[in-house]
Design brief:
This protein is an alpha/beta fold. It has 11 helices and 12 strands. It starts with 11 loop residues before the first strand and ends with a helix.
Amino acid sequence: MLYDNHGRPLEYVRVAVTDRCNLRCFYCMPEEGINYVPRQALLSYEELERVVRVLASLGVRKVRLTGGEPFVRRGLLPFIERLSSIAGIDNIGLTTNGVLTAPHVPELVRLGVRSVNLSLDTLDRERFLRITRRDELPRVLETFQALLAAGIRVKINAVVMDGQNIEDLVPLAELTRELPVEVRFIEEMPFNGGSHATPALLPWNHVRIREHLAAHFGQLLPQNSAPGATATSYLVPGHAGRLGIIAAYSRTFCGTCNRIRLTAEGGLRTCLYDQGVLDVRALLRGGASDAELRAALANAFRYRAANGFEAEQHRPVHQISFESMSTIGG
């Protein structure tokens, strides 16, 4: 198994297959979108596959495909099939906004995709339109139902935004009463592509989110989380599913973080809050051998920040809010 310089195992990579998205969520980017990188600057599927093979040889076992929105890039399903054949990779997941996903659910089952994280910040169509700037809630809910019917494990990711969707926290959490899903509430992060200023202190942090849910549901029973999990999980007595809270801005889970990120243009991030620690694309297109690529990756892991605050301190001043999660990889 691969370990970083703080003794944390690295066994999970989030791979962004594109920076493009078919929604315009205001907490991720401005209404006009972001400056997408040229298509030739994106890693090809062949390049992405090669990096995952090398990472698997180092001990990575889990891959989650992200974007942007993964399904806006053609050829995604054949790429997943190739990933599933890589020795050592035993868990492939997907994060999607659900707009284009429903027709592909049977193929995801065939390919062995174990879990899907579905981005869904509200169940109200008007608020969905206001938040995402697109009227696509019916198609997202169609995907949700298709995933449940197919038996794929579903986690709903809802970003908690002051003045935008607070009235949606309880309705979203109510989904766990009858359905075997985990609804996860995420602190809003500063990566909004310059859409708006992020306050130094969030009005809705993980403590307030928990208190808000407890005020409605009563006792929330803490559950054991998987190693490296970012969410603190809770069970509401009598509910079929679980609730989760992700302190993405407060960064309370850094001490057990087991994940790394590969951006769509080949930047390695060993922390969500760093600015990229290795240009993998340059190595690939510069003719590096697998052994050289493996050595460069392993070396980068020896200098990983202890937590998100340390990683942020090493970034250029004021840069963070001008990045978009679509560019970083969800």
